[in-house]
């Protein structure tokens, strides 16, 4: 091989190495910022990463909301009809939060199987249902005719 070909191959190799490094850095950044969604049934049937933030959604089970301790901490159960998960949240709940309401909570699962939420979101009007929650309810057979999805479509 001539020195010119060696130099060209070295530059191509360094370029490919730099491209691979940049791709690895981008994928690592995306992985740290992605928040996965699980339904209560998924939490019972799948291996969920420990110590990692994710979202869980479904309906707040009837008779499950209770204030504990200092009054700022609330514990309730989220269900999708096929599974349940206890949720603990410290802070102000959305005004529309109530039993039977569709919610999405973001947080982590602790060692006792309780989802410790750092944010709770409730649907914003009578017809809205977050798409992840709607899909989970449809899979479990709890979907009610006439409920609307996030895009406003009534199914």
From TrEMBL:
Keyword annotations from UniProtKB, A to Z: Cell membrane, Cytochrome c-type biogenesis, Heme, Iron, Membrane, Metal-binding, Signal-anchor, Transmembrane, Transmembrane helix
Extracellular topological intervals: 30-155
Positions bound to heme: 124, 128
InterPro entries according to UniProt: CcmE, CcmE-like_sf, NA-bd_OB-fold
GO biological process, one term: cytochrome complex assembly
Gene3D superfamilies found in the cross-reference section: Nucleic acid-binding proteins
Location of this chain's protein in the cell: Cell inner membrane; Cell membrane
Residue ranges that the UniProt entry lists as topological domain Cytoplasmic: 1-8
Family per record: Belongs to the CcmE/CycJ family.
Protein name: Cytochrome c-type biogenesis protein CcmE
Species name: Ferruginivarius sediminum
Lineage, highest ranks first: Bacteria, Pseudomonadati, Pseudomonadota, Alphaproteobacteria, Rhodospirillales
Primary gene name: ccmE
